[in-house]
Amino acid sequence: MMDHDHLLQMLTRLKLTAIRDQVDSLLDEAARQELNLRESLVFLCEVEVARKEQRRIQMGTSIAKFPFLRTLDGFDFEAQPSLDPKQIRELATCRWIANGDTTLLLGPPGVGKTHLAVALGRETIKSGYSTLFTTATALMASLSKAHQEGRLDDRLTYFAKPKLLIIDQ
Q1: Which residues are bridge partners to 167 per DSSP?
Q2: What gap in Å lies between CA 24 and CA 95, rounded to an integer?
Q3: pLDDT tens digits for 75-94?
Q4: Are 130 and 161 within 8 A, CB to CB?
Q5: DSSP state of 72
Q6: Cys staple from 35: which of 40, 70, 101, 135, with CB 3.0 to 4.6 Å?
């Protein structure tokens, strides 16, 4: 019979941290639901996968350097009648990124271009694409400084590396 500490060590070694952190309550829940061994294993794996997915999205969002977090659900499409919600939802599928296409959001200040760009950026992260947000001013300043310091190639690589680069005005 395996003791509890040994189980925790094995879960740590396998990097199953969600299961490790909740093993007792997860096993209790599986018993409450009267899950058989196979169903219990699926349940435990689902918990682990959900945690890893949540962490991947958090990490991608942190790396993206968004100025704030926005979602498509939070966008007021009624305030922008010229904007087609179906077209934005289509962009949220990220097929355009997979195809290597470019998207340009145009309009006067205050119509929600940055909100949409950040929301679409979050969708790309959820879809597994690397994303980076910057402003045009910050981009130019960074490239200019890198050029002066003889590091322009490195900086260009930094900005070219993400699958989606959002350049805001």
Answers
A1: 134
A2: 41
A3: 988 888 888 999 999 999 99
A4: yes
A5: S
A6: 40
